[in-house]
Amino acid sequence: LIYVGGSMTGQFSEFMVSNDALDDPSELRSRMDDLGYLFFRKLQDPDKLLDLRKDILSTIQAGGWLVPGSNLIDGIADPSKRCTEGDSEYPAVYHEVYKLESFHSAAHWAPVVDTMSKIVNGSAVPHPSKIARLWFPQFTDHTTPAHQDFVHFQGDFDTYTCWTPVGDCPRELGGLAIKPRTHKSRSVYDHHFSLGAGSLTVEGDDLEGDWLTTDYEIGDCLMFHSLTLHQALPNITEDRLRISLDNRYQSLESPIGEFQLVPHMSQIHPLPWDEVYANWESTELQYYWLNMFDEIIPRDNSYADKGFTEALSLATTGDDKAILKLRRTITNNPYSDDANAASAVLKDLDLL
After folding, report:
1. CA-CA distance, 226 to 159, in Å (whole number)?
2. Which of 53, 81, 153, 240 has the lowest CB atom count within 10 Å?
3. What angle do CA 168, 172, 176 make, to 5 degrees?
4. 37: β partners
5. Backbone angles phi, psi at 229, to 5 degrees
């Protein structure tokens, strides 16, 4: 079933599998140009991903998010610790995951980089700003909504995401879904306020039509264009965390968005690279991108600003999700202009 705006509607179809084209770069590019995505079975080494899963879950366990005494590899979440990227308590655990050398190294594994290089027809470079998605079960209001990645990482349209589940990811655990060919207009859709990662979503008729997904197995991965519409399915399992990687790649010759050179979520939960690298055994991937890109594009804040303005307006009507957004804004950056605007609205509602 398709998850749109908090409700289930319609049916999913299966991805086209592109393993048959791995040795044919022109065919890979043709399929990406046509569909806006490529899906591969077992492109990545399941054993290496299982080792990474153990590293990540050991860190999460130390942070107190797992049920004490449960089997580590199952990732059984303690529902009382439920939180997400906008919550002030989230970085206490997420930052520790972010410091893992194994987590950053995964973006540089040869099967993915080599495939991305075929897609861009040159040298593909992973963005420094790697992302881990740590998603609690039964937290469906915060499911990542339908959107285009470009509004978040910007830079060049021809930038690509590789989404990798770190463990098997059947539909009920909340894998990714794609609306194919939505990149063909070479334009950014109109995005609006939403909860979920990124806080922006596409709505209405733009969501109509075929959506694709699958029951992912460890080693599978999904690559897609920055303008391709996609969304997460809700994690409706009883108690399992969904763990996945969002790594972005582009041609070395393309411009990069400036905030792809800093750790993920730095705008709300600052974390300097020196802290990320403090306990690494190797220096090979530390600051690997310095002096690599000829053009760095300043961030366009208009997408985020529009979403926040909509949240302010919705909050005045009593919208619970918008009110939560304003509360998080005040907590995460209490002296910012956005926090001042949020405080004014909540005071008018007698909620502050």
Report:
1. 6
2. 81
3. 70
4. 224
5. -65, 135
Contact in structure between 111 and 41 (CB atoms under 8 Å): no
Rounded CA-CA distance 80/239 in Å is 11
Phi, psi at 73, each rounded to 5°:
-65, -20
Q: Characterize 195-223 residue by residue with b for buried, 16 or more Cβ atoms within 10 angstroms of its Cβ, and e for exposed.
A: bbbbbbbbeeeebeeebbbbebebbbbbb
pTM of the model: 0.95
pLDDT at 352 over 90: no
Nearest to 130 by CA among 249, 226, 37: 249
Estimate the crossing angle of helix 320-332 against helix 337-348, to 10 degrees: 140
Dihedral sign from CA coordinates of 320, 322, 323, 324: positive
Across the chain, mean pLDDT equals 94
Residue carrying the six token digits 């600051």: 287
Element (DSSP H or E) covering residue 327: helix 320-332
Question: CA distances (Å), 146 to each of 178, 202, 351, in order?
Answer: 9, 6, 30
Query: Mean pLDDT over residues 166-172, rounded?
Result: 97
Beta bridge partners of 222: 39, 163
Convert the pLDDT of each residue in 325-338 to its tens digit: 999 999 999 999 99
pLDDT over 90 percentage in the chain: 91
Q: Are strands 242-251 and 124-126 parallel, antiparallel or unpaired?
A: antiparallel
CA 91 to chain centre: 15
